[in-house]
Amino acid sequence: MADLTTQRPPAPRPLDLVEAFINSADLETGSDELATPSGLRGWLLHRHLIKRAELVSEQDRSAAIRLREALRRAALANNGAAVERRTMRELNQLARDAKMIIAFEEDGTARLDPSVRGVEAGLARILAAVLVAKLTGQWTRLKSCANETCHWAFYDASKNRSGRWCDMTACGNAAKGRAYRARRRSSVG
User: CATH assignment of 10-188?
Assistant: First the structure.
């Protein structure tokens, strides 16, 4: 649901980076900003995650897609779906590949920095944003839409964290309609 950016406010920083990364593919329309290595390069450059001189390969794109879809599934788990072991294995492998280190600023603040370069460093910064969100308690508010044809990532700012759909009108009513029709079919048959 690519047009939802006007209806829901984005996640707070740095979780907004993860939200944007997950939503770089719109499952309903089939559009994918990372469909090519040059698309991934443009996405990373626009967010200052790589330097202009960095090259992006098909292998880099494949790693980015694996990370994006693992994060989408993890955000779906924040919406009540079961956490898949495959998702956790994939995220753990990508985190090991990121080779993050703790770096200290002159004022004493600390941050996670990738010890790798290029696209790997850009993807590592996305993983670092996930860690910060987990540490601050914001991670559980990043959800993938419960509508099985959508799975658009959204930030659930509701007080009781009960949001299930990226958009109640489009996805919520569609999901409720499918459930109703399924109940009717099972009661008739």
Answer: 1.10.3300
